[in-house]
């Protein structure tokens, strides 16, 4: 029988039992869609990180108080050994430092005339806009003078500004209260969009001079981090080593003891995040792939039932001149058509689900052609592999017994 | 004229576990073109086995079978499939039509396994075959929309569509009432009158009387082989029945 006829007959046979075909293919559809969505989420996260890094520049080196894991957010940590003097020493003695900012973080309730809003408060130097490549939307960032005098000035992130003064407003000159003290808003940072980690909004923040944070807000003398922007082409590995040596010396750490700080380059951090998300992506995809396997087993099961049900039909086809090969192809093509159709629908569903995740959860997703090709190819392979055994069973039926089957 | 079927010392023995079951113990006969042969005998007499061998659905354990000049006794499975498609048409007791498929598509089926027939040709030949059995107005009906007799007529049309040398019918009237059985036998007789060679298996002696020759089987051998003396004519019987009905209707 011609291939075209075989195909057409397979499609008709599947259509005859449309509900059963649909339910059988469902396992495969979900499996394919799941793999695509998982990989899309993973890739979206990775791409988002990469573009973040690019926009922030890869030149950032972060020193954190405490032997921590990455830039730990939050208030004063257990370790209070990192100081402003450390920061100055680094600026003076480590070559390649372009911009530098000591840092402290906390959360506080901001109270404006009509609204209040709980947000993250960052204390930084006047060089933050240069370090983070972060332009202003309104007003000006605070200055070294403000830092030296621990002035009560604040720069709002665009999301915090939206909450306190209304979307898009210019609150320059307005007063807000922070920890019971009046601060003057001197500007608004432009919008940066979501950070690489789902759920963190970079624009939901307020920035004040670190000196103000130390003296007037937290009442401490240490800092929790020092952020350095290196010169282009500066040797970051050497800088990291130099900073480590310097701080160990200053903190009088004996050889063999652990650092009471951590130095991380953005590159390192990015690599770590990337490899974490990649591992997670593979893990999620593997789990999703299991459902592909289950879908394949479902197809084999239903094909076996179908062969048994159609034993007399097979006997009839053999009696009118079908060869065993014709019968084999007929059932194999049915399985393959079912799995390819399931694969195609799964791909469409995967696209749709990725879109939904992006739109509703605000996670970035990126469907890769590789994942689509791989899962569609797997669907086809599953059809062939799991369809073969039932097809062979059908083809090896004896025509006389088959015709007599009740 | 050479025989359509030429069988010499045909033997078929089935192996069931350790047992050897002899179904046919040596059959020799010829069937000439245009004959209408009925194979009769009780269950287990070997008539069904013989028909399976004639239909190339199975291979003999020993002996020769020459169909239309070709020795098919030693052909492999694929070659036998080709012979079945080319030379033989089957009609079964249970009709064996494809469900949820139109009559015309059912009749087209044998042509799908044949090369060189276009879709249009298939449809035309199938329609013509259905016409010749009186179902020209029911091309698109599905089997569940047809009576038993009509379904069997579709099966007959299917058997004819590849212009076979031989039609094999296995208890074709077994699932039909008396009146419908006569209608089906009328079709067979008409086809036979036009030159078609028919071999029909039945355990009903009345049905065998529609044929031209009866071969009786017993215990795997041919016990009797005679031409039919008082041949029944289905057409005449149907006319008589129709007249009877009219009379009854008038009287009532």
Into which percent range does the helicity of residues of chain A fall?
A: 55-70%
- Helix-and-strand structural type of chain A: alpha+beta
Number of helices of chain B: 8
So what's the overall shape of chain B? globular
The backbone outline of chain A, from C-alpha atoms, is: elongated
Give me the strand/helix succession of chain A: HHEHEEHEHEHEEEHEHEHHHHH
Structural class of the secondary structure composition of chain B? alpha/beta
In total, the number of strands of chain A is 10
| Helical coverage of chain B, percent range | 25-40%
**Rg of chain B (CA only):** 19 Å
Please give the oligomerization state of what you see.
heterodimer
State the end-to-end distance of chain B: 55 Å
Number-wise, the strands of chain B total 10
Q: Numbering strands along the chain, what is their spatial order in the largest sheet of chain B?
A: 6-7-8-3-9-10
Reported for the largest beta sheet of chain B, the result is: 6 strands, mixed
Low-confidence stretches of chain A: 70-77
The side-by-side strand order for the widest beta sheet of chain A comes to 2-3-8-5-7-6
Mean of pLDDT of chain A = 87
The span between the termini of chain A is 27 Å
Helices of chain A, by number, come to 13
Write the layout of secondary structure elements.
The complex is a heterodimer of chains A (406) and B (252).
Chain A: H1 3-16, H2 18-56, E1 60-65, H3 84-93, E2 97-111, E3 116-124, H4 128-131, E4 136-139, H5 144-148, E5 153-156, H6 158-165, E6 175-178, E7 181-189, E8 205-209, H7 210-218, E9 225-230, H8 236-250, E10 261-265, H9 266-309, H10 311-319, H11 324-360, H12 369-395, H13 399-404
Parallel strand pairs in A: 3-8, 5-7
Antiparallel strand pairs in A: 1-9, 1-10, 2-3, 2-6, 2-9, 4-7, 5-8, 6-7
Helix pairs in contact in A: 1-11, 2-9, 2-11, 2-12, 3-8, 9-11, 9-12, 11-12
Chain B: E1 5-16, E2 19-31, E3 36-40, H1 47-54, E4 62-67, E5 70-71, H2 77-87, E6 88-91, H3 103-112, H4 119-132, H5 148-160, E7 166-170, H6 178-193, E8 197-201, H7 205-208, E9 213-218, E10 221-227, H8 234-251
Parallel strand pairs in B: 3-8, 3-9, 6-7, 7-8
Antiparallel strand pairs in B: 1-2, 1-4, 4-5, 9-10
